[in-house]
Amino acid sequence: MRVLGIETSCDETGVALYDTQRGLLADALHSQIAMHAEYGGVVPELASRDHTRRLLPLIDNVLEQASMGRQQLDAIAYTAGPGLVGALMVGASTAHGMARALGIPVLGVHHMEGHLLAPMLENEPPDFPFVALLVSGGHTQLVRVDGIGRYQLLGESVDDAAGEAFDKAAKMLGLDYPGGPRVAALAEHGDPGRMRFPRPMTDRPGLDFSFSGLKTHTLTTIRELDGRGQLDDQARADVARAFEEAVADTLAIKCRRALEQTGLARLVVAGGVSANVRLRARLEEAASKRGARVYYPRGRFCTDNGAMIAYAGAQRLLAGEQDEVGQMKAVPRWP
Ligand code: KG4
Ligand code: ZN
Protein backbone atom coordinates (compact mmCIF):
# COMPACT_ATOMS: atom_id res chain seq x y z
CA MET A 1 0.00 0.00 0.00
CA ARG A 2 1.40 3.38 -1.05
CA VAL A 3 0.38 6.07 1.43
CA LEU A 4 0.76 9.81 0.99
CA GLY A 5 1.40 11.54 4.34
CA ILE A 6 0.54 15.20 4.96
CA GLU A 7 1.64 17.26 7.99
CA THR A 8 0.42 20.85 8.46
CA SER A 9 -0.26 21.14 12.19
CA CYS A 10 2.05 24.05 12.95
CA ASP A 11 4.89 25.76 11.07
CA GLU A 12 6.21 23.01 8.77
CA THR A 13 4.52 21.74 5.62
CA GLY A 14 5.61 18.12 5.40
CA VAL A 15 4.75 15.56 2.71
CA ALA A 16 6.00 11.99 2.24
CA LEU A 17 5.29 8.74 0.45
CA TYR A 18 5.48 5.50 2.41
CA ASP A 19 5.15 2.06 0.83
CA THR A 20 4.22 -0.65 3.33
CA GLN A 21 6.43 -3.10 1.40
CA ARG A 22 9.33 -0.95 0.25
CA GLY A 23 9.48 1.62 3.05
CA LEU A 24 9.87 5.37 2.66
CA LEU A 25 9.91 6.36 -1.02
CA ALA A 26 10.19 10.16 -0.80
CA ASP A 27 9.75 13.07 1.55
CA ALA A 28 9.77 16.86 1.29
CA LEU A 29 9.45 19.69 3.75
CA HIS A 30 8.92 23.41 3.69
CA SER A 31 9.75 25.16 6.96
CA GLN A 32 8.06 28.46 7.81
CA ILE A 33 10.60 29.27 10.53
CA ALA A 34 12.14 32.21 8.66
CA MET A 35 8.70 33.67 7.98
CA HIS A 36 7.61 33.58 11.64
CA ALA A 37 11.01 34.55 13.08
CA GLU A 38 10.44 38.29 12.75
CA TYR A 39 7.31 37.95 14.95
CA GLY A 40 9.12 35.92 17.62
CA GLY A 41 6.74 32.97 17.28
CA VAL A 42 4.23 31.26 15.01
CA VAL A 43 1.50 33.57 13.63
CA PRO A 44 -1.45 31.19 13.03
CA GLU A 45 -3.02 33.02 10.09
CA LEU A 46 0.29 33.32 8.27
CA ALA A 47 0.92 29.63 8.93
CA SER A 48 -2.40 28.57 7.33
CA ARG A 49 -1.85 30.74 4.28
CA ASP A 50 1.65 29.43 3.74
CA HIS A 51 0.50 25.79 4.04
CA THR A 52 -2.10 26.57 1.35
CA ARG A 53 0.62 27.95 -0.91
CA ARG A 54 3.13 25.14 -0.35
CA LEU A 55 1.16 21.93 0.03
CA LEU A 56 0.17 21.03 -3.55
CA PRO A 57 3.64 21.79 -5.00
CA LEU A 58 5.19 19.62 -2.26
CA ILE A 59 2.81 16.76 -3.09
CA ASP A 60 3.84 17.00 -6.76
CA ASN A 61 7.47 17.08 -5.62
CA VAL A 62 7.31 13.79 -3.67
CA LEU A 63 5.36 12.07 -6.46
CA GLU A 64 8.05 13.20 -8.90
CA GLN A 65 10.85 11.96 -6.59
CA ALA A 66 9.14 8.55 -6.56
CA SER A 67 8.32 8.69 -10.31
CA MET A 68 4.67 8.13 -9.50
CA GLY A 69 1.39 9.63 -10.56
CA ARG A 70 -1.44 10.52 -8.20
CA GLN A 71 -3.43 7.59 -9.62
CA GLN A 72 -0.91 5.18 -8.11
CA LEU A 73 -1.64 6.31 -4.55
CA ASP A 74 -3.53 3.77 -2.45
CA ALA A 75 -4.40 5.97 0.54
CA ILE A 76 -3.78 9.35 2.18
CA ALA A 77 -2.96 10.12 5.83
CA TYR A 78 -2.94 13.61 7.30
CA THR A 79 -2.37 15.17 10.71
CA ALA A 80 -5.82 15.73 12.23
CA GLY A 81 -4.51 17.25 15.49
CA PRO A 82 -3.46 18.52 17.90
CA GLY A 83 -2.27 21.80 16.40
CA LEU A 84 -3.40 25.16 15.03
CA VAL A 85 -6.93 24.73 13.71
CA GLY A 86 -6.48 26.74 10.50
CA ALA A 87 -3.20 25.00 9.70
CA LEU A 88 -4.74 21.58 10.36
CA MET A 89 -7.68 22.38 8.09
CA VAL A 90 -5.38 22.97 5.12
CA GLY A 91 -3.96 19.44 5.38
CA ALA A 92 -7.30 17.85 6.25
CA SER A 93 -9.25 19.44 3.39
CA THR A 94 -6.50 18.76 0.84
CA ALA A 95 -6.28 15.12 1.95
CA HIS A 96 -10.05 14.63 1.83
CA GLY A 97 -10.38 16.45 -1.50
CA MET A 98 -7.67 14.37 -3.15
CA ALA A 99 -8.91 11.10 -1.65
CA ARG A 100 -12.45 11.83 -2.87
CA ALA A 101 -11.20 12.65 -6.36
CA LEU A 102 -9.05 9.50 -6.51
CA GLY A 103 -11.60 7.27 -4.80
CA ILE A 104 -9.13 6.06 -2.15
CA PRO A 105 -9.28 5.86 1.68
CA VAL A 106 -8.13 8.77 3.84
CA LEU A 107 -7.33 8.89 7.54
CA GLY A 108 -6.66 11.63 10.10
CA VAL A 109 -3.69 10.81 12.35
CA HIS A 110 -2.70 12.05 15.82
CA HIS A 111 0.41 14.22 15.48
CA MET A 112 2.05 12.74 18.60
CA GLU A 113 1.49 9.20 17.36
CA GLY A 114 3.46 10.28 14.31
CA HIS A 115 6.36 11.48 16.50
CA LEU A 116 6.10 8.35 18.63
CA LEU A 117 6.46 6.03 15.63
CA ALA A 118 9.08 8.08 13.73
CA PRO A 119 11.96 5.83 14.92
CA MET A 120 10.22 2.92 13.13
CA LEU A 121 11.40 4.47 9.84
CA GLU A 122 15.05 3.81 10.75
CA ASN A 123 17.15 0.81 9.68
CA GLU A 124 17.03 -0.98 13.02
CA PRO A 125 13.63 -0.06 14.42
CA PRO A 126 12.80 -0.97 18.02
CA ASP A 127 10.63 -4.02 18.73
CA PHE A 128 7.55 -3.59 20.92
CA PRO A 129 7.18 -3.08 23.83
CA PHE A 130 9.20 0.06 24.59
CA VAL A 131 9.14 3.20 26.69
CA ALA A 132 8.83 6.42 24.66
CA LEU A 133 9.84 9.90 25.72
CA LEU A 134 7.95 12.43 23.61
CA VAL A 135 9.50 15.88 23.86
CA SER A 136 8.18 18.58 21.56
CA GLY A 137 7.08 22.18 21.69
CA GLY A 138 3.66 21.20 23.02
CA HIS A 139 4.22 17.87 24.82
CA THR A 140 6.46 16.18 27.35
CA GLN A 141 5.25 12.65 27.92
CA LEU A 142 6.46 9.22 28.93
CA VAL A 143 4.47 6.47 27.27
CA ARG A 144 4.55 2.70 27.48
CA VAL A 145 4.07 1.38 23.94
CA ASP A 146 2.95 -2.23 23.50
CA GLY A 147 2.01 -1.94 19.82
CA ILE A 148 0.37 0.39 17.30
CA GLY A 149 -2.45 2.15 19.19
CA ARG A 150 -1.59 0.40 22.45
CA TYR A 151 -0.28 3.30 24.51
CA GLN A 152 -0.26 3.83 28.24
CA LEU A 153 0.61 7.29 29.53
CA LEU A 154 3.15 6.90 32.36
CA GLY A 155 3.75 10.57 33.06
CA GLU A 156 3.61 14.04 31.53
CA SER A 157 4.34 17.67 32.18
CA VAL A 158 1.94 19.32 34.59
CA ASP A 159 2.76 22.73 33.06
CA ASP A 160 5.17 23.73 30.25
CA ALA A 161 6.50 21.26 27.69
CA ALA A 162 10.28 20.86 27.49
CA GLY A 163 10.43 22.51 24.04
CA GLU A 164 8.28 25.38 25.27
CA ALA A 165 10.70 25.86 28.19
CA PHE A 166 13.60 25.97 25.70
CA ASP A 167 11.74 28.52 23.59
CA LYS A 168 10.98 30.71 26.63
CA ALA A 169 14.53 30.49 27.97
CA ALA A 170 15.69 31.56 24.50
CA LYS A 171 13.48 34.64 24.61
CA MET A 172 14.87 35.57 28.05
CA LEU A 173 18.38 35.28 26.60
CA GLY A 174 17.45 37.48 23.64
CA LEU A 175 17.62 34.60 21.14
CA ASP A 176 15.33 34.19 18.13
CA TYR A 177 12.51 31.72 17.62
CA PRO A 178 12.64 28.73 17.60
CA GLY A 179 14.74 28.81 20.72
CA GLY A 180 15.73 25.19 21.29
CA PRO A 181 18.53 24.90 18.74
CA ARG A 182 19.77 28.41 19.57
CA VAL A 183 19.94 27.77 23.33
CA ALA A 184 21.80 24.55 22.53
CA ALA A 185 24.30 26.40 20.34
CA LEU A 186 24.89 29.09 22.98
CA ALA A 187 25.24 26.45 25.72
CA GLU A 188 28.22 25.01 23.83
CA HIS A 189 30.24 28.05 24.96
CA GLY A 190 28.94 27.86 28.53
CA ASP A 191 30.92 26.77 31.58
CA PRO A 192 29.10 23.74 33.05
CA GLY A 193 30.61 24.35 36.50
CA ARG A 194 29.46 27.95 37.06
CA MET A 195 25.78 27.49 37.94
CA ARG A 196 23.53 24.60 38.83
CA PHE A 197 19.82 24.89 38.08
CA PRO A 198 17.18 22.74 39.84
CA ARG A 199 16.02 19.35 38.50
CA PRO A 200 12.28 19.81 39.11
CA MET A 201 10.23 16.95 40.61
CA THR A 202 13.13 14.48 40.62
CA ASP A 203 13.30 14.23 44.42
CA ARG A 204 9.85 12.66 44.73
CA PRO A 205 8.46 9.50 43.19
CA GLY A 206 6.45 9.53 39.96
CA LEU A 207 7.00 10.17 36.30
CA ASP A 208 5.43 13.60 35.85
CA PHE A 209 7.43 16.68 34.86
CA SER A 210 7.25 20.37 35.62
CA PHE A 211 9.29 22.99 33.79
CA SER A 212 7.68 26.26 34.84
CA GLY A 213 9.79 26.56 38.01
CA LEU A 214 12.94 26.10 35.98
CA LYS A 215 11.75 28.89 33.70
CA THR A 216 11.28 31.21 36.70
CA HIS A 217 14.69 30.21 38.06
CA THR A 218 16.24 31.08 34.69
CA LEU A 219 14.54 34.48 34.60
CA THR A 220 15.57 35.29 38.19
CA THR A 221 19.18 34.31 37.46
CA ILE A 222 19.28 36.49 34.33
CA ARG A 223 17.81 39.47 36.22
CA GLU A 224 20.29 39.10 39.08
CA LEU A 225 23.23 38.93 36.71
CA ASP A 226 21.88 41.95 34.83
CA GLY A 227 21.32 43.88 38.09
CA ARG A 228 24.97 43.34 39.00
CA GLY A 229 26.06 44.41 35.51
CA GLN A 230 27.39 40.89 34.86
CA LEU A 231 25.14 39.76 32.00
CA ASP A 232 27.88 39.54 29.38
CA ASP A 233 28.13 37.00 26.54
CA GLN A 234 29.90 34.46 28.75
CA ALA A 235 27.24 34.76 31.48
CA ARG A 236 24.46 34.24 28.91
CA ALA A 237 26.23 31.13 27.64
CA ASP A 238 26.66 29.87 31.21
CA VAL A 239 22.91 30.35 31.86
CA ALA A 240 22.07 28.50 28.62
CA ARG A 241 24.38 25.66 29.65
CA ALA A 242 22.95 25.40 33.19
CA PHE A 243 19.40 25.45 31.78
CA GLU A 244 20.12 22.80 29.15
CA GLU A 245 21.92 20.55 31.67
CA ALA A 246 18.93 20.82 34.03
CA VAL A 247 16.36 19.89 31.36
CA ALA A 248 18.47 17.04 29.96
CA ASP A 249 19.22 15.67 33.42
CA THR A 250 15.58 15.87 34.55
CA LEU A 251 14.35 14.05 31.44
CA ALA A 252 17.08 11.40 31.81
CA ILE A 253 16.28 10.76 35.50
CA LYS A 254 12.60 10.21 34.67
CA CYS A 255 13.41 7.97 31.70
CA ARG A 256 15.62 5.80 33.87
CA ARG A 257 12.82 5.59 36.41
CA ALA A 258 10.32 4.63 33.69
CA LEU A 259 12.62 1.85 32.47
CA GLU A 260 12.96 0.62 36.06
CA GLN A 261 9.23 0.74 36.67
CA THR A 262 8.25 -1.07 33.47
CA GLY A 263 11.24 -3.43 33.40
CA LEU A 264 11.65 -2.62 29.69
CA ALA A 265 15.03 -2.32 27.98
CA ARG A 266 14.15 -0.12 24.98
CA LEU A 267 13.76 3.65 25.11
CA VAL A 268 12.45 5.60 22.13
CA VAL A 269 12.96 9.37 22.09
CA ALA A 270 11.09 11.56 19.63
CA GLY A 271 9.77 15.08 19.04
CA GLY A 272 11.69 18.28 18.34
CA VAL A 273 13.72 18.32 21.56
CA SER A 274 15.06 14.83 20.78
CA ALA A 275 17.41 16.61 18.36
CA ASN A 276 19.25 18.01 21.40
CA VAL A 277 22.74 16.50 21.57
CA ARG A 278 23.21 16.92 25.33
CA LEU A 279 19.85 15.29 26.02
CA ARG A 280 20.90 12.34 23.86
CA ALA A 281 24.15 11.97 25.81
CA ARG A 282 22.31 12.01 29.17
CA LEU A 283 19.74 9.50 27.94
CA GLU A 284 22.46 7.15 26.64
CA GLU A 285 24.13 7.28 30.08
CA ALA A 286 20.87 6.67 31.93
CA ALA A 287 19.82 3.81 29.64
CA SER A 288 23.22 2.11 29.68
CA LYS A 289 23.07 1.93 33.47
CA ARG A 290 20.02 -0.28 32.97
CA GLY A 291 21.42 -2.17 30.00
CA ALA A 292 18.79 -0.50 27.82
CA ARG A 293 19.12 0.77 24.25
CA VAL A 294 18.00 4.19 23.02
CA TYR A 295 16.31 4.70 19.62
CA TYR A 296 15.87 8.04 17.82
CA PRO A 297 14.49 9.18 14.51
CA ARG A 298 17.09 10.57 12.08
CA GLY A 299 17.71 14.31 12.57
CA ARG A 300 15.16 15.66 10.11
CA PHE A 301 12.42 13.35 11.42
CA CYS A 302 12.84 14.59 15.02
CA THR A 303 10.93 17.76 14.23
CA ASP A 304 7.64 17.88 12.32
CA ASN A 305 7.62 16.00 9.02
CA GLY A 306 5.34 14.15 6.60
CA ALA A 307 7.13 10.79 6.84
CA MET A 308 6.01 10.07 10.40
CA ILE A 309 2.40 10.80 9.43
CA ALA A 310 2.60 8.59 6.33
CA TYR A 311 4.02 5.77 8.49
CA ALA A 312 1.56 6.10 11.39
CA GLY A 313 -1.34 6.44 8.93
CA ALA A 314 -0.21 3.38 6.96
CA GLN A 315 -0.22 1.20 10.09
CA ARG A 316 -3.77 2.23 10.98
CA LEU A 317 -5.04 2.04 7.39
CA LEU A 318 -3.61 -1.50 7.20
CA ALA A 319 -5.69 -2.29 10.27
CA GLY A 320 -8.79 -1.13 8.38
CA GLU A 321 -9.27 2.34 9.85
CA GLN A 322 -10.37 5.24 7.65
CA ASP A 323 -12.34 8.50 7.88
CA GLU A 324 -15.98 8.53 6.79
CA VAL A 325 -16.43 10.13 3.35
CA GLY A 326 -16.54 13.90 3.74
CA GLN A 327 -15.77 13.78 7.47
CA MET A 328 -12.50 15.65 7.58
CA LYS A 329 -11.03 16.07 11.05
CA ALA A 330 -9.21 19.11 12.45
CA VAL A 331 -8.90 18.73 16.22
CA PRO A 332 -6.84 21.51 17.82
CA ARG A 333 -6.88 19.87 21.28
CA TRP A 334 -6.67 16.13 21.18
CA PRO A 335 -5.47 14.32 24.33
O1 KG4 B 1 8.17 18.37 17.37
P1 KG4 B 1 8.37 19.79 17.01
O2 KG4 B 1 9.06 20.12 15.71
O3 KG4 B 1 7.01 20.56 16.97
C1 KG4 B 1 5.99 20.30 17.88
O4 KG4 B 1 5.20 19.36 17.62
O5 KG4 B 1 5.99 21.02 18.89
O6 KG4 B 1 9.16 20.45 18.24
C2 KG4 B 1 9.55 21.79 18.24
C3 KG4 B 1 10.26 22.09 19.54
C4 KG4 B 1 10.54 23.57 19.72
O7 KG4 B 1 10.15 23.94 21.03
C5 KG4 B 1 12.05 23.67 19.54
O8 KG4 B 1 12.63 24.75 20.26
C6 KG4 B 1 12.51 22.34 20.07
O9 KG4 B 1 11.53 21.42 19.61
N1 KG4 B 1 13.84 21.95 19.57
C7 KG4 B 1 14.93 21.81 20.35
C8 KG4 B 1 16.00 21.47 19.49
N2 KG4 B 1 15.52 21.41 18.22
C9 KG4 B 1 14.19 21.70 18.29
N3 KG4 B 1 15.09 21.94 21.68
C10 KG4 B 1 16.32 21.74 22.18
N4 KG4 B 1 17.41 21.44 21.44
C11 KG4 B 1 17.30 21.29 20.10
N5 KG4 B 1 18.38 20.98 19.37
ZN1 ZN C 1 5.54 17.96 16.44
From TrEMBL:
InterPro entries for the chain: ATPase_NBD, Gcp-like_dom, KAE1/TsaD, TsaD
The UniProt record lists the keyword Transferase: yes
Main location: cytoplasm
Catalytic activity, EC: 2.3.1.234
GO-annotated cellular components: cytoplasm
PANTHER family the UniProt entry points to: TRNA N6-ADENOSINE THREONYLCARBAMOYLTRANSFERASE, TRNA N6-ADENOSINE THREONYLCARBAMOYLTRANSFERASE, MITOCHONDRIAL
Protein known as: tRNA N6-adenosine threonylcarbamoyltransferase
Domain Gcp-like: 24-311
Gene designation per UniProt: tsaD
UniProt similarity note: Belongs to the KAE1 / TsaD family.
Catalytic activity: L-threonylcarbamoyladenylate + adenosine(37) in tRNA = N(6)-L-threonylcarbamoyladenosine(37) in tRNA + AMP + H(+)
GO process terms (BP): tRNA threonylcarbamoyladenosine modification
Binding site for substrate: L134, V135, S136, G137, G138, D167, G180, N276
Alphabetized UniProt keyword annotations: Acyltransferase, Cytoplasm, Iron, Metal-binding, Transferase, tRNA processing
Function description: Required for the formation of a threonylcarbamoyl group on adenosine at position 37 (t(6)A37) in tRNAs that read codons beginning with adenine. Is involved in the transfer of the threonylcarbamoyl moiety of threonylcarbamoyl-AMP (TC-AMP) to the N6 group of A37, together with TsaE and TsaB. TsaD likely plays a direct catalytic role in this reaction.
Annotated residues for binding of Fe cation: H111, H115, D304
Cofactor annotation remark: Binds 1 Fe(2+) ion per subunit.
Required cofactor(s): Fe(2+)
